[in-house]
What we know:
It contains 22 helices and 10 strands. The protein is an alpha/beta fold.
Amino acid sequence: MSHTKPYISNLQEKTNISKIKTEIIPVKQRFVGEKITLNKEAICVFAATGFFLDQDTYFKEQNVLKPACKYEINNETQTILSETSYFKWHYSPVERSFTEIVDEFAQLFETIIKEQVGDTNVILPLSGGLDSRTQAVALKHLNIPVNTYSYKFQDGHDETYYGKQIATVCNFPFQAMIVPKGYLWNAVDELASMTGCYSEFTHARQMAFINQYEVLGDVFSLGHWGDVLFDDMKVDDNLSFENQVSFLVKKIVKRGGLELADSLWKDWQLKGAFADYLKARVSDLLTAINIPENANAQIRAFKSLYWAPRWTSINLSIFKAKKPITLPYYDDRMCAFICSVPEKYLAGRQIQIAYIKKRMPALAKLTWEAQRPFNLYTYTYNHLPWNLPYRVYNKLGRIASNNKYIQRNWELQFLGSENENQLENRLFNTPGFSSMISTEIPQQFYNLFKTKDQVFYSHAVSMLLTLSLFSSKELKSTKN
């Protein structure tokens, strides 16, 4: 009898514990801790790059769980009781022929897709790139029913052209969609709730079609992160650690982002200089990865640990709001496979190109958008003098057009009188925003956007819009 009370207490304690295993590339953020005090250093990084680093959130007391870890968490106290890593990115190349590697990829990729989608009706977003084309090949080979779609910007380059061609060759139903002007303002509050304001709003183009997804199929097969895993990082394999840090800082900081972050840093009177803080953070994270054998492998690991889950994954919530999502390139087995492939075979998208040629040569003959007008057999000719006729033709066509050529979503959402009214209202009239940052900062960067350089300052304006939504939805529960 004397053991009864402690036994019940232990049982109750165990029921308050959650066991969580995060993926190697997490599909969603998992938070632990409370929303109390603004993490202003982390917000400055977010303003500069468009994503939060490592475990950072808007709040000092709250963190995101790390990738590839097993956790025990006390649900009552919101504290981590134990944390164990089960995977670490590495570079352990196994020498074999390129043909063998392509065959391994084919078997693994098709196995993953088959397991993920079964015999359901798949929704496949198509682009002119290689990731979704590779998925189309696998889905066709597996005889899985597929509905496809592509989108283009209103008055922009017709990206649906490539998706329609792929769908036609595969005999998949296809739907072309257009990103319309000003859709953001009817969706921005819902989008802020979906993403938690952890991504700026003009990247989420899929929000424009959110109400059209339900009739297309049962499950999404999304091609995110294939372009990072199956390519080199465009650096020398022996690039020094210091130069890797500099390369990554330049890569993650957006145009105008450093200027915005520096203004916030000074407005909040934080210690030191923001640029030094960011460089030190990147250096520490890269040191912890520790893949001295190959700079490309180390930079890819950095991106997969910090960029993929904290930037790429955020807007997956939009797809998930309508249908279940699957991501073959995110699969743990795919990550492990990449670590075994010699870098010389990852460079230049060789594996995906060879797979497409192997399974469906007809798809390899279609234009590769990034190398247009060349295809997977001819793209090595995309340089002077071979590409000169197309470059001249393309430029003349754009000059002859009477319409403004739209290349970026913010052009459709920020420009024009109606968009400007909506944007200005959010930047300057959002309750609580002025208690977060000085009113001069939104005014300063919006004026620079309007009068100096729209392209350069578009990121800063978009980040300020994101922070304004965050301030109205979340800031009430914090202490400055």
